[in-house]
Design goal:
By secondary structure, this protein is α/β, with parallel strands linked by helices. Helix content is 29%, strand content 26%. It has four domains: 2-124, NAD(P)-binding Rossmann-like Domain (Rossmann fold), CATH 3.40.50.720; 130-225, Alpha-Beta Plaits; 235-356, NAD(P)-binding Rossmann-like Domain (Rossmann fold), CATH 3.40.50.720; 364-457, Alpha-Beta Plaits (2-Layer Sandwich). It has a six-stranded parallel beta sheet, sandwiched between helices. The chain has a six-stranded parallel beta sheet with strand order 14-13-12-15-16-17, sandwiched between helices.
Amino acid sequence: MKVIICGAGQVGWQIARHLSGEKNDVTVVDMDPDLVRRATETLDVQGVIGHASYPDVLERAGARDADMIIAATYSDEVNMVTCQVAHSVFDVQRKIARLRAQSYLDVIYSDLYRRDHMPIDVVISPEREVAEAALQRLASPTAFDTESFLEGKGQLLGITIAEDCPVINTPLRQLSDLFSTLRAIVVGIRRDGRLFAPAPGDQIYAGDDCYVFTDTADMARTLEIFGKSHAKQERVVIIGGGNVGLGVARELEQRTDRVRVKVIERDRKVAERAADMLDRTIVLNGDGLEVALLEEANVSTADAVLCVTDDDKTNLLAAVRAKEMGCPMAIVLINDPTLVPLLGPMNIDAYINPRATTVSSILRHIRHGRVRGVYSIGDAEAEVIEAQVLGTSPISGQRIRDIAFPEGVLVGGVLKGGKMVKPTSELRIEEGDVIAIFSMTADVPEVERLLQVSIDFF
């Protein structure tokens, strides 16, 4: 597949990294020569320096025979015009645009993206993706990472194993015997900085970060078995009233179970805008690092603090201060993945990586076959892929034990007839099933091959 990626920033570079690693023909376009040089020197991609929406620049990037264009520059308008030019001049079939401004995303203007108007096939909103990720973190406050799969019936939980965890030093195969009715499976373990898919004989140790795939109905029990409580969040303080903080506050306002929310925003105009758009939320104008303001927001009695300003260091410091003042749960927005190892020593409970959420959202729309969801784990170290099994897939009709999955691949859950089923070696994968697979990044191409539609399907 030939793909043009416009914008070589964090998201564009990460998408290029994924696609080029899977042997696609990738060209990166950006006005910044340094960003293009970084992409071409570190990845197997071609680079073009220039304004992404200019027809001559797209021509040099090979738009005439491109299968897809992904417009992920920092400008919404450039992304929109890029898709229009790609459609009108070069007849590119698949066009994805990243849009930030909420006005472009309002549902009442959705007709704007019809093929005969502004021909964008998929609109990605980083702020909405991050807000949704933040809400999932709040729903599972003792997990450092969460994502929903299988029509909401399956849940991926990232759990840090403490010394008092009841199942440490227990081989994973014994967990199935001890908790025979629990529909959960450990699909990934990070130990000493290395992520791997565990074998049945592997054990869990204190300090491990475990990725557990569980039936949503068993989520509370799964957390309890791994030594975590499942507390309800009733009082939340949000530091940062921009699009992400505003999106989370609006969603919390609309929930039937009343959640009391307070927002702290430093910029007066942004704070006034947030106050105008929120009904039951108190918005405070000031610095989220100031003790007096945090006391006014009653952070010491809050169940959680969510730090989502556009500055990583501010988020980290605000979270540390809130924890110091007595808040039991702190979630931070982190753009720079090199800061993630600091979260443990700083006693910060969970983080959201906007790059990973946006990359996951884009990958969801460009995978082969009937892939319905993709979630990127860590710094593009692994993925959880959700896909519908077709009759022509190599895995259709086979028992899990007979499928030649690579070592770095584990099945997390299977949706059969609308019900989540825990995968066992004897479980037969059938046409129409929806399967969630944990795969190390190096093994993704083989997973795609196993899910791939044969040419005779068409």
